[in-house]
Amino acid sequence: MPPAGSCDDAISQLPQPTVEMMDRKRSYGPRGGPHRQYDVELPKRWISSDGKCIIDVTQTSYPSHERDVNLLSAATIIRRECLAKAQPPWGGYGHAMGDEGNLNISVAAYTPPYVKCEGAPPARRPNHEACQRIIDVIMKASTARATFAAQGVPVPGQAVERLPQALVAPGGGCTITIDTNVPVDTASWHQSQADCTDYKVNTALVDGDKAASELQ
Known about the structure:
alpha+beta; five-stranded antiparallel β-sheet; 3 helices; 17% helix; globular; disordered C terminus
């Protein structure tokens, strides 16, 4: 269950309403097209600095149009009603938002199944903005099932995503490595890593530091 303070931190990362944006609605749609068509490309995730609370914005169809203040208000209400007051405080979900009624927001706990810090001396933490850019721009987000296989493992007649894959933020500061503990498996890029027990994601600095956080 997410600590309320962690979710406060995640909520503070949401776009904050400004006077000039108060009446303007942002457009939301899927990312991955040849040209950026939307103000916010989905799926979109904000993570608290301690990694214990996540806010996800998704949609059931596209496009969607919504004001910043409405998303912020929904996240704040979920935090108050589903964390501060609820027992147990698991978090919550807001749906049918936006002009089209197809935009969803969730506030929930996130606990990696396995966290391992290795190497000495302790390294500096990866740059949060650099890691967020990998998630937002570089990492694939398809919900279609894909076949993942370790290097050298034959998979006849199928398009295969070979692992490991290292995704590096432009300019450095963070790298995310996707690897597998089995020869062949299937998953979607959009699938939560917390549910994908055969996969591990290493988040580390790309400047030579040895320490890393490993999610497996």
